[in-house]
Specification:
Strand content: 25-35%
CATH topology: Protein Transport Mog1p, Chain A
Helix content: 10-25%
Shape: globular
Strand order of the largest sheet: 3-4-5-9-8-7-6
Number of strands: 10
Structural class: alpha+beta
Order of helices and strands: HEEEEEHEEEEHE
CATH architecture: 3-Layer(aba) Sandwich
């Protein structure tokens, strides 16, 4: 089971705990020790996928009004940790692996946070800039997938002994914000990003 961190003291009552839930899930993947392995090995579950045949063995998790597909090697956390609806943890590569790369899903009410998707993204960017160490926003852009609009936000931040990269797909529908986040150590990001993006894009809001 992944090491859990306490809730940061800077989260004031007026700021939704889930406003930028990816900040709170920063150490969800920490497994043991302080030193982090840097490797060129693929993380189990993040192996490259080439076509639909590679997705045949993937599983589907259905939440309340949404669903997501993921490789069978991932383990699920549905305890609601820090406001998340779901966390998918990758398997560790070996005994020296220190970080379990993960994908989280969070669903929150938009009311009281922002007026719309643009406002939510703006507050997230402000939050990242103010409350993460050495942040760098790599991408912030509106996208379309299967006729639906979402915002992709990619940024990196410094942890005590390594950097994390986070890729977020943010959607707003019927007064709710759906945030799906890929979080991985920067050293293995290039190995994880393609399959990670496939998982993110499998997320669907059910009609």
């Amino acid at each position: 089971m992944a090491f859990r961190i306490g809730m940061p003291s800077f989260l004031l009552p007026g700021l939704s705990v889930c406003l930028c839930v990816m900040l709170l899930l920063a150490d969800c993947g920490r497994q043991r020790g302080d030193e982090v392995r840097h490797t060129d090995k693929e993380t189990p579950g993040f192996e490259a996928v080439d076509d639909s045949d590679d997705l045949a063995d993937w599983l589907t998790y259905q939440g309340e009004g949404w669903s997501i597909r993921y490789p069978s090697l991932f383990s699920l956390d549905t305890t609601g940790y820090l406001g998340s609806s779901l966390i998918l943890y990758s398997a560790l590569t070996d005994d020296g692996d220190q970080y379990s790369d993960n994908i989280s899903v969070s669903v929150v009410d938009l009311a009281g946070i922002a007026a719309d998707l643009d406002g939510y993204v703006k507050r997230c960017e402000q939050f990242i800039t103010q409350y993460t160490e050495d942040p760098e926003i790599l991408l912030s852009d509106r996208r379309r997938l299967h006729g639906h609009s979402y915002h992709e936000l990619v940024y990196s931040e410094k942890q005590p002994s390594f950097r994390l990269i986070r890729v977020q797909h943010i959607r707003v529908k019927d007064g709710k914000v759906y945030v799906v986040t890929l979080t991985c150590e920067d050293a293995v990001y290039d190995l994880c990003k393609d399959t990670g993006e496939t998982i993110l894009k499998s997320f669907s809001i059910l009609d």
